[in-house]
């Protein structure tokens, strides 16, 4: 089987953070403005500390102060200038904070939006078997929870990292310039802090990966239980299901507890190292003052700003914690984006106006993953415009055959052609656009009756929707609903009966007006009277189009142009209804059981 690799796989070796930043490449001007505002905000935040040092210098040195060197020797004048500078700095700090906060948060929303859209779009392109092997809750956890985790990091994490680096560079540079003899003692803890950060990061990464995995499990459990709430109630298994949710939730709690135990230990360690640096500055700086190598004002300034240099390292624990949570989430998201698309479409188009509907199935074989063959060298020719029926016992391969025609799965050998064109050469949307499929497992979306019928043609008018409903024998019950065509059907159509859902699904397929119509047990959930009415309408619906009807009820397909009987993945009988009865084989046996003869 040919494996189609999506473009995202070409980037799979990049670090997750670099791949995430790739979504921001179209917003570089906003990013640079946000970066600039963040740095300027932090510099303005640091400025008052420097101004305090200058103020101490004015009070102690008076006419010999730093400000006096620019020509203002009066103390009151010097203090007035400091006051004005302080007002200006605080105003600018507030302005830059407003700007960077707005920019970063809007960027976070934009990147989150694009990443979620890309992830969902890629998810839609994956083959049906991918969804059969995974729970809906797990996928929802990735597309929703994990991407929301990235938003939380982008909202504040980028600004925190920039502010941290700004503080370290600005204050560290000031130390080296003002007191090079004391600076080594002040920055002594920094290498140890960085080393500890990387060690903790390495230890935290697998723990947060486990947290996100457990979050997926509990999301899967909750989604599954909410979908099956009627079954839970009917079997009175509420206590049992509560215990299962309790187990999943407790596993998530214990996983978080392990991560918290490690991340919580980081802050006290950093605090201890910060104190070491502060004491070293206090002690050795004091000695420098006593030896007349530092002024009192400079010493006071150094003791004050050493905290500004070292305390940001304490916030490194929170930054690292948020970073690792975000990376655990992004790895799950990128893992989904890296999933190869196993069924890739061709490049040929198939305009609806020229499709005749001839179907040729030639020696195809198929088996579901790790299972025995469902179809074995099956061949079938359906002329354009023909109305055929397919019958057989459960598991004989009837529904699998039509799913292969839609390329929900890929055949292992042989080929399927429409109008002489191999379906693997066709664009998937072109192929599926010319086929209308009414499944035995009807799915209706949460919305109105009209919206669900219009799913067959989103541009359909109200008149066309009503006409399709009448052909499907659905109009009569629809107008009796509380709001008629505007009645909300509920999730999966739970407010309607099985027969009502099936008729809406038929109306949806009719509105699509496809050249090829597949009815997979399309009347299995309707009563005999409704089935007779639908059969009457089908004579109109199936005109001038190829129709493949799969049925357990033989009455549904008895008037087909040709009927095929399947058994264990092979066609064992074929012919018209009367011909098959005359064979006195499987079909005749089924007919006798159903007709009571």
TrEMBL record:
CDD domains, sorted: ABC_6TM_exporter_like
Gene3D superfamilies: ABC transporter type 1, transmembrane domain (1.20.1560.10), P-loop containing nucleotide triphosphate hydrolases (3.40.50.300)
Domain ABC transporter: 359-593
Record keyword NAD present: no
Main subcellular location of this protein, as a coarse class: membrane
InterPro entries assigned: AAA+_ATPase, ABC1_TM_dom, ABC1_TM_sf, ABC_transporter-like_ATP-bd, ABC_transporter-like_CS, P-loop_NTPase, Type_1_exporter
Domain ABC transmembrane type-1: 32-325
Keyword Plastid part of the UniProt annotation: no
Membrane topology: Multi-pass membrane protein
Subcellular location: Cell membrane
GO molecular function list: ABC-type oligopeptide transporter activity; ATP binding; ATP hydrolysis activity
Keywords: ATP-binding, Membrane, Nucleotide-binding, Transmembrane, Transmembrane helix, Transport
GO cellular component: plasma membrane
Transmembrane segments: 66-92, 153-176, 182-200, 264-290, 296-316
A Pfam family of this chain: ABC_tran
PANTHER family listed in its UniProt record: ATP-BINDING CASSETTE SUB-FAMILY B MEMBER 10, MITOCHONDRIAL (PTHR43394:SF1), ATP-DEPENDENT PERMEASE MDL1, MITOCHONDRIAL (PTHR43394)
Descriptive protein name: ABC transporter related protein
Native organism: Chroococcidiopsis thermalis (strain PCC 7203)
């Amino acid at each position: 089987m040919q494996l189609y690799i999506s473009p995202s796989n070409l980037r799979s070796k990049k670090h997750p953070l670099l791949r995430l930043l790739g979504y921001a490449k179209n917003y570089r001007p906003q990013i640079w403005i946000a970066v600039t505002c963040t740095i300027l905000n932090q510099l303005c935040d640091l400025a008052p500390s420097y101004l305090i040092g200058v103020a101490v210098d004015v009070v102690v040195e008076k006419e010999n102060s730093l400000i006096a060197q620019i020509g203002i020797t009066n103390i009151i004048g010097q203090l007035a200038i400091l006051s004005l500078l302080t007002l200006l700095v605080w105003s600018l700090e507030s302005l830059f904070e407003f700007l960077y906060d707005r920019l970063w948060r809007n960027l976070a929303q934009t990147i989150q939006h694009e990443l979620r859209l890309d992830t969902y779009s890629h998810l839609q392109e994956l083959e049906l078997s991918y969804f059969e092997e995974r729970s809906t809750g797990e996928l929802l956890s990735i597309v929703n929870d994990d991407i929301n985790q990235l938003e939380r990091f982008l909202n504040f994490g980028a600004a925190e990292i920039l502010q941290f680096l700004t503080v370290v560079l600005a204050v560290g540079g000031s130390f080296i310039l003002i007191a090079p003899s004391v600076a080594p003692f002040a920055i002594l803890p920094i290498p140890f802090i960085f080393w500890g950060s990387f060690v903790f990061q390495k230890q935290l990464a697998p723990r947060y990966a486990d947290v996100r995995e457990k979050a997926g499990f509990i999301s899967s459990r909750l989604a599954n239980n909410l979908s099956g709430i009627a079954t839970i109630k009917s079997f009175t298994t509420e206590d049992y299901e509560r215990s299962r949710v309790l187990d999943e939730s407790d596993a998530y709690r214990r996983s978080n507890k392990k991560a918290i135990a490690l991340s919580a230990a980081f802050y006290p360690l950093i605090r201890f190292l910060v104190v070491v640096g502060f004491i070293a500055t206090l002690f050795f700086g004091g000695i420098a003052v006593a030896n007349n190598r530092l002024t009192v004002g400079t010493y006071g300034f150094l003791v004050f700003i050493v905290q500004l240099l070292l305390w940001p390292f304490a916030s490194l624990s929170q930054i690292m914690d948020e970073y690792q949570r975000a990376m655990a989430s992004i790895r799950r998201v990128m893992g989904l984006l890296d999933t190869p698309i196993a069924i890739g479409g061709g490049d040929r188009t198939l305009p609806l106006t020229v499709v005749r509907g001839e179907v040729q199935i030639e020696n195809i074989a198929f088996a579901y993953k790790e299972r025995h063959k469902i179809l074995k060298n099956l061949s079938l020719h359906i002329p354009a415009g023909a109305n055929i029926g397919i019958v057989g016992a459960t598991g004989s391969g009837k529904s699998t055959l039509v799913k292969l025609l839609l390329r929900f799965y890929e055949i292992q050998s042989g080929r399927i052609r429409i109008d002489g064109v191999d379906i693997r050469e066709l664009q998937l949307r072109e192929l599926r656009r010319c086929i209308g499929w009414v499944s035995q497992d009807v799915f209706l979306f949460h919305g109105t009756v009209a919206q669900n019928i219009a799913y067959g043609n989103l541009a359909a008018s109200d008149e066309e929707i009503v006409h399709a409903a009448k052909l499907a024998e659905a109009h009569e019950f629809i107008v009796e609903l509380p709001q008629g065509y505007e009645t909300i059907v509920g999730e999966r159509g739970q407010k309607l009966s099985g027969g009502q859902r099936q008729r809406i699904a038929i109306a949806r397929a009719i509105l699509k007006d496809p050249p090829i119509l597949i009815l997979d047990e399309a009347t299995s959930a309707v009563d005999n009277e409704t089935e007779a009415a639908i059969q009457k309408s089908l004579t109109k619906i199936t005109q001038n189009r190829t129709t493949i009807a799969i049925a357990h009820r033989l009455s549904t397909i008895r008037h087909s142009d040709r009927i095929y009987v399947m058994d264990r993945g092979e066609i064992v009988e074929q012919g018209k209804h009367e011909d098959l009865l005359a064979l006195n084989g499987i079909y005749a046996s089924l007919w006798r059981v159903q007709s009571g003869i």
